[in-house]
Amino acid sequence: MTKKLLFAFLFATRVTRLVAWINRKKVTILCYHSVTKQAGPIPNDIHKLHLGVDSFRDQIDYLQANYQIISLSQFIDARRANLKLPANAAILTFDDGVRNFLTVVAPLLSERKIPATSFIVTGENYTRDNSAANGIWDPEDDENHLTWTDVRHLAELGLEFGSHTCSHLSLPDIPAAEIRNELEGSLNALKSNLDRNSFPLCYPHGRTTESISRLSQEIGYSCGLTSLLGQNDVDADMFALRRTVIASDDDLPTFAARVSGFTRWCNRLTELIVNRVSAEHKTSAVSYEPLLPDKCAPNKTF
Ligand SMILES: [Zn+2]
Ligand 1 center to residue 52 CA distance, Å? Predict the structure, then answer.
């Protein structure tokens, strides 16, 4: 609650806007999971992944008023061609291929011509075609996954797709051969279902290592997204991109503080203090970089 009061104060006094202006040359990649039409909190949503549609609409209104929403492919193309991106560029991404991307998110974004990328788990258990793409929202869409029929339909509307691997296993925790299978299998599935050759990758649970990032590049992905908190500088490693994870209970001032980069500053400060204390007590040093989060969940430290 104290944090929310602080964010409300920063929002009312336009300090959040000032922070966003200072960070205007960085690219913010937002990470969502599920946008639901259900009223009130979803039971057992311990990771705060199911955001209400009214809050989502308010967030999109705020982004449209204060940021330039670009597509992930626009960002990748600009980096490849060394082109300048607009100030305050923001990218929308959705992890896990939750089916309400079709029935809740897509209608709202398509109406406003806003680009977004959905990262789907391509294994058969996740994408089996067991329902028609009728586009009528059902509460089960908060738990079900997009089918290939849904994905092809949404791609025709201009929405983008990427890989969240075949099985959503934490890549650093499985054998090398299995990592390669997860990455290659998923890329091949996307290529055979969608009329594109290049696809981005989002590491399951946001977790990667230097060797996994390089393997992803070698296999042919266009970039790799983590759940490391933060924005991306012009020289950010395209296979270790940072994101801003949005929690389902974020009010608008909290959302604005996250997107501006303010919460990342707070985390950096906390890390510096922890490191200083560790050094003074001659304990092992703590990395300035946050540890890779264990879940596809909002960073709980701020
Ligand atoms: Zn995930």
Answer: 19
Ordered structural domains, the chain, with CATH: 2-280 (3.20.20.370)
In sequence order, which ranges of the chain are alpha helices (DSSP H)? 2-12, 15-22, 53-66, 72-81, 100, 106-112, 124-127, 148-156, 176-193, 210-219, 252-260, 262-280
How far away, in angstroms, is 234 Cα from ligand 1 center? Answer: 26
Q: Which residues contact 66 (CB under 8 A, 6 or more apart)?
A: 17, 20, 88, 256
With a pLDDT cut of 90, the percent of the chain lying above it is 75
DSSP 105: I
User: How much is the pTM?
Assistant: 0.89
Q: Dump pLDDT digits (tens) for 177-196.
A: 999 999 999 999 999 999 89
Read out DSSP for 173-226? GS-HHHHHHHHHHHHHHHHHHSS-S---EE-GGG---HHHHHHHHHHT-S-EEE
